[in-house]
Amino acid sequence: MQETLWTQAPRRNQNLVQVIQSYYQLTKPRIILLLLITTAGGMWIAAEGQVNPLLLLVTLTGGTLAAASANTINCLYDRDIDYVMERTRHRPLPSGRVQPRDALIFALALASISFSLLVVFANLLSALLAMSGILVYVLVYTHWLKRHSTQNIVIGGAAGAIPPLVGWAAVTGDLSWAAWVLFAIVFFWTPPHFWALALMIRKDYASVGVPMLPVVEGEAATARQILWYSLLLIPVTLLLVYPLHVMGAVYAVVALLLGGVLVQKAWQLMQAPEDLDQARSLFKYSILYMMLLCAGMVVDSLPVTHQLLSFCTEHLQALISAIPMLQGLTV
Ligand code: HEM
Ligand SMILES: CC(C)=CCC/C(C)=C/CC/C(C)=C/COP(=O)(O)OP(=O)(O)O
């Protein structure tokens, strides 16, 4: 395809604010926020609730720059199909507001700053993990799988699961089992998250020949897969409680409630796989799910939560021993 078919003519005469806005949009900022929340979740558990604020700031900044770089390269690579799809045709590259060469320089600069920041102020492992996130997203997902396999987002989803590893590595300098469970949580969450959205925009993907699951196998098969991954996600989230013992009762309750609602929504979708409202509701909930699950991790790992729980346990114990009928019970 010729370049002129991929983009509108370069847009000249943009003022500085418009230029900044265009580069900002190139980075898909709204997605980055949730990626950062998962990074922070990893840091909180790794630091057992007591994260060094400076390390938090540096790691989140490095993570932001790496994800921004990855998203910019994805926009650059996909500018041909983005030009055709209604949802994406107003992005900075297809609309001619940013030139491909400038986007590439921008992405490389972001990746270099991210790597330097993480190496100097966190550690080498976290910097290498952030760079591997860019590589997996660009090479494995965007280049290799997105246009060739219905399992594109399952395997490519590994890229989106790397941010909690970056957070964990920044705190401890290595990766424990718990870090890999965090990776698995985002990995198994990605299919319900993305396929719900893909059900809503399947015509767009079909128009450019991207073989997303709903396009190739239809709505019912996609809804079934969403339900399986949602069911699998519940035991995976609970691995942090047992056998790893890095999370306690507060997180366990949050994970069970959130997982229960996810499964319920997936079940409702399976009853009416063509209902776009059900798919939209599941997609929106998937984002809330991940935010609240990470909030649950943070709250559970705070020292004040532990103090509060042992205070309640002690008083419950005292109350039980004061009631003759209940003597013999222990909490
Ligand atoms: C391969 C894995 C993934 C794919 C293919 C995917 C795909 C998408 C797509 C196509 C959108 C709509 C974006 C738009 O219209 O501009 C979206 C939205 C979103 N994604 Fe994902 N996603 C993936 C993984 C993730 C991960 C790991 C996170 C964060 C943990 C995430 C967070 C979000 C958020 C927060 C939105 C909503 C953005 C908004 O408010 O518009 N995604 N995702
Ligand atoms: C550590 C690190 C830097 C990790 C990178 C993680 C990362 C940037 C994940 C993004 C996942 C995502 C939004 C995919 C959508 O791409 P798409 O091409 O399917 O979306 P589109 O159709 O909207 O362009």
Automatic annotation (TrEMBL):
It is a multi-pass membrane protein. CDD domains: PT_UbiA_Cox10. GO terms for molecular function: protoheme IX farnesyltransferase activity. Its EC number is 2.5.1.141. Pfam families: UbiA (PF01040). The chain crosses the membrane at residues 31-47, 127-145, 152-171, 177-201, 226-244, 250-270, 282-299. Pathway: Porphyrin-containing compound metabolism; heme O biosynthesis; heme O from protoheme: step 1/1. PROSITE patterns: UBIA. It catalyses: heme b + (2E,6E)-farnesyl diphosphate + H2O = Fe(II)-heme o + diphosphate. It is found in: Cell membrane. The keyword Methyltransferase does not apply. InterPro entries: Protohaem_IX_farnesylTrfase, UbiA_prenyltransferase, UbiA_prenylTrfase_CS, UbiA_sf. Keywords: Cell membrane, Heme biosynthesis, Membrane, Transferase, Transmembrane, Transmembrane helix. Carbon 2 of the heme B porphyrin ring is defined according to the Fischer nomenclature. Converts heme B (protoheme IX) to heme O by substitution of the vinyl group on carbon 2 of heme B porphyrin ring with a hydroxyethyl farnesyl side group. PANTHER family: 4-HYDROXYBENZOATE SOLANESYLTRANSFERASE (PTHR43448:SF7), PROTOHEME IX FARNESYLTRANSFERASE, MITOCHONDRIAL (PTHR43448). Belongs to the UbiA prenyltransferase family. Protoheme IX farnesyltransferase subfamily. This is Protoheme IX farnesyltransferase. The lineage of its organism: Bacteria, Bacillati, Cyanobacteriota, Cyanophyceae, Leptolyngbyales.
